[in-house]
Design brief:
This protein has 234 residues and is of the alpha/beta class. It is 38% helix and 16% strand. Helix 1 packs parallel to helix 2 and helix 1 packs parallel to helix 8. It is globular. It starts with 5 loop residues before the first strand and ends with a helix.
């Protein structure tokens, strides 16, 4: 089995997905509405992407901007989205919700995870807004399927978060409780960050805008993804 580092790319549609896979992406995060930092895509979009590529797809579960799950009816809608995506064949997901105090919204997360089981899933950058990262990790540690944290190490992005990322990677290497899931670095990630992160043991990377040199109104650029693939593998 390949042990190469993971490159995950945000895809909004099948065109993005095909370009990302051709450039060397290992996995896609499927979202819509990047003006809201990425919401749950339509089931039809998932189906088109699934038919277009053969790499792993992680579907975002979020219906509004921010890290609140919203009102009870919105949580119900999220649960319905899981069911529809599972019927269509989705088997990997991305989610993460906090309460007003910055603690994990365990009621919502546990409800969704019950619907996802046995799927694998990522807890996304809500961790970067948590009141206590270590406490959040330990509260979520026993949830089935959690294998990844998407994080910049800081709400301000990777520039500020590198010390945290390196420390958490070291905690994972030591086998500390709550630090088993893979760290997927994303949020202002640049090519020049890679040498330090790779040297510190980080082995999974997430790009969105960085895969689109012409902006979010343009599709993923295959050559740019390939540049990232080569830099990560160097």
């Amino acid at each position: 089995m390949s042990k190469r580092a993971v490159l995950e790319v945000i895809a909004l549609n099948a065109e993005d997905a095909v370009a990302a896979q051709a450039g060397g992406a290992d996995r896609l995060e499927l979202v819509t509405d990047m003006a809201s930092d990425g919401l749950t895509p339509a089931v039809e979009t998932f189906a088109k992407i699934r038919a277009s590529v053969d790499i792993s797809l992680r579907v975002m579960l979020r219906l509004q901007d921010g890290f609140s799950a919203g009102a009870p009816d919105e949580v119900d809608a999220l649960v319905e989205s899981v069911g529809a995506m599972r019927i269509e064949g989705a088997d990997e997901f991305v989610l993460g919700f906090l309460d007003v105090d910055g603690n994990p919204d365990l009621v919502t997360v546990e409800r969704l995870v019950a619907e996802l089981d046995p799927c694998r899933w990522t807890f996304h950058r809500a961790i970067d807004r948590a009141a206590n990262r270590d406490a959040l990790r330990k509260q979520l540690a026993d949830l089935p399927g959690l294998d990844t944290y998407l994080t910049a190490g800081s709400a301000n992005g990777v520039d500020d978060g590198i010390p945290v990322l390196l420390a958490e990677a070291a905690s994972g290497a030591r086998g500390e409780p709550g630090y088993g899931p893979q760290l997927l670095v994303g949020g202002g990630l640049r090519l020049d960050h890679l040498p330090q992160l790779r040297a510190g043991g980080l082995n999974a990377f997430h790009i969105g805008g960085a895969a689109r040199p012409n902006g979010w109104d343009a599709p993923v650029d295959e050559a740019t993804v390939r540049q990232w693939r080569e830099a990560i593998d160097a």
